[in-house]
Structures are given as structure tokens and as C-alpha cells.
Amino acid sequence: MSDLFRSDNVVVRSVPASDLSRWVVTFDNYGIGHGFDRPGFGEEFLRNAGVSAIHVMGVREDWYQYPEMAAAMQAVRQATAGAERVMTYGSSMGGYAALRFADAAGANAALAISPQYSIDPNKVPFEQRWIQDSRRIRWLPEIDGQLTCSVSPVVVFDPVGHDGLQGALIQRDIEIRPVRLPYVSHPATTYLGEVGLLQSLVLQTLSGELDVGAFNRKARQARRRSGLYIANLAQAQPDYRQSLAVSLARLSVERAPGNPLAGSTLALILSKAGEHRTAVAEIERVVAMTQNDPNYLIHYVNILVAADQPHAALPWAREVVKAWPHMAHLRAWESSVLWSVSEREEAIASVQMAIGLDPADRKYRRLLKSYQRQIAGARRVEVKRSIRRWVSGLIRGESPSAS
Fold first, then answer.
1. Which InterPro entries does the annotation name (predicted)?
2. How far is CA 5 from CA 10, 65, 123, 134, 289, in A?
């Protein structure tokens, strides 16, 4: 293992195997971690598979908008010169990079799972999933401009929702070999891993042996044994099909009791249906299973609040914010829990932190104003009550100070 390139923003790390004729160049997904003291995307799997890998690691979730990326990709080209196969690979943010940097890396294959075309709000105003980062990042036209890719990449995505819109934009610019898997959600890596198809997809794309049509059929057929797929179907049900949603969610847990996504989906749907006691029990099972994973603690807090247990929810909300202190929407979310238990000053402090983290988002300022109006209204009510008590005391001949 050695670093081929290093800057304050980017590290290019080589992890060669005995076979140097094939290389996979990976890019981090969103949330893999900050800094460089960590494994690269897919590092353990590729090492165990005996595949030489180069891991391109960004210091944080900046969507690789770094001016030194050209130099970083030149280091990749030099390290893989003469190799028979070079494949870029990534999921979500990493899928974005796998497409954007395939040519610069000298790749002759690319695999992008649930990629974005862009998250620049000026280009994709529908995309809100990473809005705090998208407004923060300075988008570089040489990286985030019109997409070019001389290879025909394999692109796996759920055509339902925003990933479908992103996929359409990708296909507007380049020719792809699509694998469309409805209701597997984002990222599709989770589903492919659940049904045991992720490793074969990576290795067959690398070798050039992937039959995209056959893989697409096989991946769709595998949905019948997927708890995640059934859970996503449950979530997609409209309100008037609430009983069907509950039935599907229960089935998803029966199929995959060890899948926390299925369990959390069941808990959320039960909560929405007003079955609060059962919902709390199910989400507590998931939280225990995942050892207090903050992703599931968010659901736990929301379900406890819906069950009218905000005091029980507050410590867990604080745990979530402790794990991700830089996320503005979580600060605002914490403030709502604080407000529900009458922790007014802390609630205002939390929403002020949200404003500081993402000043462009007006909803945080609206929330702060709402708190301030409620406090002002409560004070007016209290003043009126004090005056009434004072006047009543005068009428009874009591001292005004007694009020």
C-alpha cells in the first residue's frame, strides 16, 4: 500500500495485488468518513478478491470539486500504464466520480451505482438530498460541466424518484449500459449486496464479461427474496392503502428479520398507522441490532415523539447530533424535540446553529421566528394574567406586591 498522490484535499492510494493486469479505481461514497485515516471504498472486498485497486479519497463530501483532480488522475494513469483493464467504480457520490473521471483515469470500463449527474442546485433544482453541501460547494466547470465518457459505463439505478431523473440527465450526455431496478432505493449497492449480486457485478464488469441484459433480469428476479425491496414497496403505498403498507412491511421483516432497513420501515409505517406501542418495540429492536446506529436513532426519536414520549426521545436526538454536528437539518430537528419538552433556550440555540451551518436555507430562519413569536405570545399572556391578578388583589384590598 502506498500513496501515489497526496494533497490537503485528495489522496490516491494504491493497494496492488499479485495480478497487475487489472485495476479498479474507486471513489468514496457520501458519508464514508472525513480525512484519510480510513479504508477506501470497496477496499476489503477487492483485496480479498485479489484485485489490484487504487482508492481515490476526498477529505470530505465535496463531490471531488478540487483543482488538483487532474494531477491526481495523472497519477492513476501512470500507475496503471500497460494494464489490460482499468475500471472506475463508485456508488452515489462515488458513482458521480466514476463517470466524471473515467477518461482522465485512462479507464476502459466504468461501473456507477446510483450515480448523480450533478447536485449543483443551478443544474438540478429538483435534487434536495444533499442540499447543504450542494450550496456550500464551489462547482468547477471542468469537472461538473457537460458529462463526457468515452467508454460505455454500466449504470445501475432505481428509475423511480430522483435517481431516475439523475439517470435521464446522464443519458442525455453519454451512452450507458443501464440496469434499471425499480424500488431498490438509494443506493442500489444495498439491494445488490442483500441478494448476493454485487460482487459478481463488479468482477464481471471488470473482466468485460458482464451480460447487462441477463444481469438485469437476474437482479429483478431476485427482488422476490429481498426484504429491502418489499419494504420499499410498503413505503411507496399511498395513505388510502395503509393496511397494505403494514402487511408488506410485516412481510419484509419476515423475509429479512436481520435487515434493519426492513425493521425501521415497519416501525415507521406502524407509527403512521397509530400503532405506537408496537412501533416503538420494533424500532427498539432495530436500534439494539445496529448498536445505536445514528441513522436508525433518527427514526427512533421520530417514533417516540409521535408516541407522545418526547422526554424519552431527547437523549437520543442529542446522540444523533453528536455523531453529525455539521448537519444543519439535524440541528433544526433537535431543536423541535427540545421545544416539545419546553427547553426553549436550548431549542433556540440549536436552530441558531442550523442557521450558522446553512445560512442560505430560509426554513431555519422561519423556524426561529416561529419560536420567538410563541415566546412573545406566551409572555403577553403571562402579563395579562399578572395584571388580572393584580387588579383582583386591589379589589379584595390586598397589597399589589402579594400578586
1. AB_hydrolase_fold, TPR-like_helical_dom_sf
2. 8, 16, 31, 26, 39
Q: Rounded distance, CA 102 to CA 83, Å? A: 15
User: Using only C-alpha atoms, what is the Rg of the chain?
Assistant: 26
Classify domain 327-403 by CATH number. 1.25.40
- Helices and strands, counts by H and E, the chain: 18, 8
pLDDT the model gives residue 378: 72
The amino acid that residue 88 corresponds to is T
Cell 457520490 found at: 93
Q: Tell me whether the CATH fold assigned to 226-323 matches the one assigned to 327-403.
A: yes
* Contacts of residue 6, Cβ cutoff 8 Å, sequence gap at least 6: 12
Provide the CB-side half-sphere exposure for 307 (13 A, CA). Answer: 23
Which of 133-137, 279-283, 356-360 is modeled with the greatest confidence?
279-283
Q: What is the DSSP string of 273-320?
A: TT-HHHHHHHHHHHHHHTTS-HHHHHHHHHHHHHTT-HHHHHHHHHHH
Q: State pTM to two decimals.
A: 0.87
In single-letter form, the type of residue at position 305 comes to V
d(CA 307, CA 313): 10
CATH class of 226-323: mainly alpha
- Which pLDDT tens digit goes with each residue over 82-112? 999 999 999 999 999 999 999 999 999 999 9
Q: How is the chain split into domains, by residue range?
A: 2-223, 226-323, 327-403
pLDDT at 387: 55
355, 375, 384 from 342: Cα distances, Å = 21, 11, 21
Q: Look-up: residue for cell 485479489?
A: 50
Amino acid letter, residue 230: I
Contacts 24+ apart (CB under 8 A), 274-277: 275/246, 276/303, 276/306, 276/307, 276/308, 277/307
Q: Are 83 and 91 in contact (CB under 8 A)?
A: no
87 phi, psi to nearest 5 deg = -125, 130
Residue closest to 308 by CA, chosen among 282, 271, 348: 271
Q: Are the CB atoms for 124 and 146 separated by under 8 Å?
A: no
Architecture of the domain spanning 2-223: 3-Layer(aba) Sandwich (3.40)
Query: Does residue 342 have a pLDDT over 60?
Result: yes
Of 185, 109, 78, nearest to 98 (Cα)? 109
